Amino acid sequence: MTNFPLRCWTVLSTVLSIGLLFFLLSFVFIKAQGVISLNFILAKPAGFPVGSAGGIWPAVAGSLLVTLIASLFATILAFFTAVYMVFHCRDDRIKLVVNLIIQCIAGIPSIVLGLFGYAFLVIKLELGLSILASGLTLAIMIFPYIQIRLQKLFLETNKQLLEASASLGINRSYTIINLLLPMYRKQILSIITLASGFAMGAAAPVMLTGCMMNAPVPESLASPFMSLPYHLYVLIGQGISLENAYGTAFVLMILVLLLNLLAAVPTLLGMRGKR
Amino acid sequence: MEQIFEKLFGILSIIFTIISIVLLFLVIFFITKESVLIFQEVKFFDFITGLTWNPLAGEPTVGILPMILATFYVSMVAVLISLPIGIGCALELAALENERLKGFFTSILAVLAGIPSVIYGFIGLLVVVKFLERTFRLAAGESILSGGIVLAVMVLPYIVSSVAETTEKSYEKYKETSLALGVSKSYMLRALILPNAKGAILTSMILAFSRAMGETMAVMMVMGNSPILPKLLGKGETIPALIALEIGTAGLGSLHYHALFSSGFVLMMFLIFLNALFYLIKKNLTEHLE
How far is CA B233 from CA A257, B129, B219, in A? Predict the structure, then answer.
């Protein structure tokens, strides 16, 4: 192998992967043009079979709500776990075991987490097929993602800063809330939004734990719900409506891209500020 | 007051940590508990080497060898397609001096990783499957190959970021020496950076492989889902697809139900093993680099 083919190879791979993304985006955006309207987004699914006409509002609302529940639970658990692991835990064996368990869960596929949600949350805890059961299952799915990154962030904190704070007699909780959180606000927000994006796009765990083909906007935590990825799967999998499938894919893609963008903006700004 | 809050904060962090760990432990415990029941009726060895899956017949048989093989096959195809492209990207990323271009490329990869798998499946069905039907004159384009192609795109960001982590580091490390020796950038990439990234390429393969094996929706939509021994241009069904498609109709506590949990268990154990391997090799590599 000489230099020229190598350059060709690296440049071609790069162009190919950038091209892939633009192909994916433009494919969905162009095909969805005819379907997307305010009415499509805000109307209920209708027609027979359900979904062949009408809109996708219950799915949009369901997806947003279940993502909110998942992010809320996962963030609280992940934040306190990371705080405990970095600032409170002094036993290396406990640290090792906890890190190992979290690493293990990070490797479990989402469909198996769905099985767990079904057997434990839906049946054993009698939550039923509900948005709460789905939200908790998704929370378990994104928990390792958030926890691992928060822990890394806290570990990289300047030790002198923490020592100075401690030697002034300031409480640890005060230091964490008033010093660390504002300092890492951008990074923490971007970690959480990226994780929410994963939760929003996941269909496998929710289809086992409470997601329905047709349901109204959930009224309580115990009601079943519709979600965009599952709705898209049903529309295309059962050949109900290709048109509406394009529309649903478009809305889902926009929502996930928005979350990605929200996650990227603070970091980009932050990077520029540093230089 | 402040002291009380400090105490409360400490207690809260312990409580929430315990909750998280118990919850995570419960996942492994519950899947295991629900799946071992079946091994009173079927031998574990028969379960993973059986060729027929027919849990609803009068005399039910549950063998998941075709699904295990299909899961491996499709993941292997995906990694083989994705690896050369991923390594190429990682080399280019390492050698890019322009910070803005680098940032742009990194965020492109992040967006690729963030696109929901259902959308990959959807586009795969409309583009890849149709393309295979036309090219190979197949009656149905749903095949291991189409699953592999779709998965290849999905695991590409993981391969790139995992390899680039090392290539970028070694590029920074040797940049000035190479410049001083008057060596061209391409030569440096070929003779120094690429051989140096061997370990990273291995870990990226493991990571991509485990991602591919655990993927449900995209694979399920483009592979045709029939529990037969997989061929490259024939249909196949992976373990996640099997679970997703059949758990809804499996009666609670039936043999079918437990068989699905057991196949989830087999997949989970294998992925935990792969993940641990990934973690160990990576830890070894980073210590080696420093």
Answer: 34, 11, 14
